[in-house]
Amino acid sequence: MDHTSAASAGLDTSVPHPARRYNYWLGGKDHFAADRESGDALERLFPAVRQGALINRAMLQRATRFLAAEAGIRQFLDIGTGLPTADNTHEVAQRVAPESRIVYVDNDPLVMVHARALLTSSPQGRTAYIEADLNEPRAILGNPALRDTLDLDRPVGLMLIAVLHFIHGHGAARPIVRELLDALPAGSYLVATHATSDFGTPEQQALYRQLVEQGKSDVWTRGHDEFAELFEGLELVEPGVVPASEWRPEPGTQLPPRNDVNIWTAVGRKP
Q: How far apart are the C-alpha atoms of 89 and 64, rounded to whole Å?
């Protein structure tokens, strides 16, 4: 998309957006100069951030395959979708179970522009897209597109991939996750990944805090214990709360150092 088309879609291309910056790190093409500048600035400070994005994306795909192939999940609510790229949630799920249904949610208007790529469902299944904000879970849950696509009396896979760290404040993510999970029946799953500074050096941790305080980073990192609290009341799937690279890696995978990942992840089942 060029700047003229972006302006007509109501996009401010002078302000970086996490979905477009993430797309840039993944090697996509749906980003603007401000997104690239923001991504490059963070990468200069934290050289492994691009590798972390790729690891996070691979985790999404492994978790989706697990839910579809092993847990029997046929409905997915993917909030913080990001821009379409290879092997989106519905493609992975429908490869296993063509009848799978997926609702995508994101608050970046550019994602809406490209939503057609997220709606290429198999004939047996269905996909839908909602432009909404994670900060307003009630609006997401009450959206007619969600209710038309998913049956909330049947288990749902709630995917919160690299999105909760944009909710700033200690403890601020937990009530949002609770409200979403409360609307889902027993047998549903939560899959979450979250940026952390737990594996960074003291200097890196101090730098991240400084960037947040100065408004130069939109990522609010959380430590192991606060992330694990999001799964309270759920049955954790083995191996539990681990770095994203260590959640059921493909056989033969050489695991990177944890300070090159900096992402906690877990999968939990609602009993």
A: 7
**Radius of gyration, CA atoms only, the chain:** 18
What the chain holds in terms of domains, given with CATH numbers, is 3-269 (3.40.50.150)
pTM above 0.90, yes or no: no
| Coil/strand/helix, residue 254 | coil
Sign of CA dihedral 169, 171, 174, 179: negative
What are the pLDDT digits (tens) for 41-83?
Answer: 888 877 777 888 889 999 999 999 999 999 999 999 999 987 7
Placement of tokens 């980073």 in the chain: 217
User: Under a CB-based contact definition with an 8 Å cutoff, are residues 228 and 241 in contact?
Assistant: yes
Q: Among all chains, which residue has been given the structure tokens 């609770």? A: 178
